[in-house]
Amino acid sequence: MVEMGVPEPEEAEESVQVEVSGADRIAEPEQQMGNHNISPLVEKWDDPNPTRDERVAEVVQQLDKACREAGFFYKGHGIPDSVLKEIRSISRQFFDFPYEEKLKIKLSPATGYRGYQRVGENITKGVPDMHEAIDVGLAWIHCYKEVEPGMYGGLGEVMEGCNKWPSDPPRFKNLMEDYVSRCTDLSRKILRGIALALGGPLDMFEGNIPGDPFWVFRILGYPAVFHSSGKQMPDAKNDIGCGAHTDYGLLTLVNQDDDITALQVRNIDGDWIPAEPVPGTFICNIGDMLKILTNGLYESTVHGVINKSAKFRVCGAYFYETHYDAVVQPVEICVQRSGGAKKFL
């Protein structure tokens, strides 16, 4: 989510830059972002007619409202809170290691752009982001193979390679692979609810669209750039954890620290909403691919990160995408519901 963005339209640029300097309006999150328990949908995800259950029908309505009005929402999800905490805890252990140790899994073109990235190496709109990261990008689910030579022809050559996992902390690889499997399964179920919300068949976003979905998982560490007094540290290059952007995929699931508010979301009125952590939930947002598939009925939302706390912030961002070589274009039912003309070709 907050780490892999695409350029925004020119008219958004000025507002984005103003927000980074702290001058934009800030709205109350509870007035803008819903907190939805999707357990009924998760329970009935393989039912051919799940909306017969009133609880599922209500979840579908909530999804539609959240996607139309905000594009970001909190999700109670069925993944144990203990798992979310363990992912953040073991990630923090890794980020606490000396740079020399972390650079053993350094990200590079030779690794298919997988591995560790130092603070300031990621750039958003020309400004270095104040975070370090482990980048994990796979083209397999569960026990499928990683991106091997020729798997997607020339189109996928840049992503060929194996994941770079640290040998220390112990169990890091196993925990992350299990977590990604859970997120992949959950994302498919959320998209089934979104398909129903749009009036389409349950599997509207399956088949040729995701097929064997590509996904990216980024484990991010945002250093503190402010003292507890609120004064910026003298050696900090800037206060931008990650510059304002939209995500390019279908869905993003964000697992963030419970006690640090850093993620900010810009709503349709231009207000910036602090996405305050809600324990036991994900922040879920829609990306540009889903915006195109829905012919603009759902909007991908501008967001960014500024860590103004005096603590090191850890976040796990999981990006669910289409099949690697899928053609992303508006689906017919969304074209008809939005005036009959395709807005994206």
UniProtKB/TrEMBL annotation:
Keywords: Iron, Metal-binding, Oxidoreductase. Residues 212-322 form the Fe2OG dioxygenase domain. GO terms for molecular function: 2-oxoglutarate-dependent dioxygenase activity; metal ion binding. The keyword Iron applies. The keyword Transmembrane helix does not apply. GO terms for biological process: coumarin biosynthetic process; response to molecule of fungal origin. It comes from the Eukaryota. InterPro entries: DIOX_N, IPNS-like_FE2OG_OXY, IPNS-like_sf, Iron_ascorbate_oxido_reductase, Oxoglu/Fe-dep_dioxygenase_dom. It holds the Pfam family DIOX_N. Residues 1-20, 25-48 are annotated as: Disordered. Belongs to the iron/ascorbate-dependent oxidoreductase family. This is Fe2OG dioxygenase domain-containing protein. It comes from Salvia splendens.
